[in-house]
Amino acid sequence: MIKKFYEPKNIWFSGGVESSLLLYFLLSQQPNTKTHIFTIVERRTNYHMLRPVNNVIQWCINKTSNLNIDHIINYIEDKNENEKYLEIMYNEYKNGYVTCFGVNANPPHMQWDGPKYDPRSSKGKKSVWMHNKSIYAPFINIDKKDIVNLYKKNNLVELYNLTFTCDEPVAGNKPCKECGACKEREYGEGR
Ligand SMILES: [Zn+2]
Q: Kind and range of the H or E element at 41?
């Protein structure tokens, strides 16, 4: 599924469905280059992310025996600053590295038709390489259903069950089943 390339990698990693699958593919299929794993955690509301994030990384290490990684966690105060920190980290580590994104296409019925360019639009085929081949997004043309099928096809359901997607968990760490991320996950699972 993913292309072979020889540069070291940066991956944006949230413990969600796509970034976990991408992390597993990178560590299992391209073990000879360094992988920087970047996680941004908003102190107040995203603290629950640390459990799935750590569980997924541990699972991938156990399965692949690949320890050629650095995990860099950036704690921020305000989730509106997420993009600013992504850019700071990207600039700090981009030289010579390919940055890998798990971004995927929206389900066909969840299109956003605003004037702004939506990178997750499922209309039209987009290149998996961006910014002069410094960014690689292998899932950009496939949606959550396809991603869930990749888990099944590659015998990774155990990994899938460690991932977490909800934006507004209840009781600390239970999926709310109401937010966009929960709805998309339901769509992916065919429920
Ligand atoms: Zn939710």
A: strand 35-42
Question: What domain range is 28 assigned to?
Answer: 9-189
Residue 13 lies in a domain: yes
Q: Ligand 1 centroid to 187 CA: how many Å? A: 13
pLDDT in tens, 127-179: 999 888 889 999 999 999 999 999 999 999 999 999 999 988 888 789 999 99
Q: Which of 26, 38, 37 is nearest to 139 (CA)?
A: 26
Alpha carbon of 180 to ligand 1 centroid (Å): 7
CATH code of the domain covering residue 79 = 3.40.50.620
Whether 2 is covered by a domain: the verdict is no
Ligand 1 centroid–CA 13 distance in Å is 18
Domain count, the chain: 1
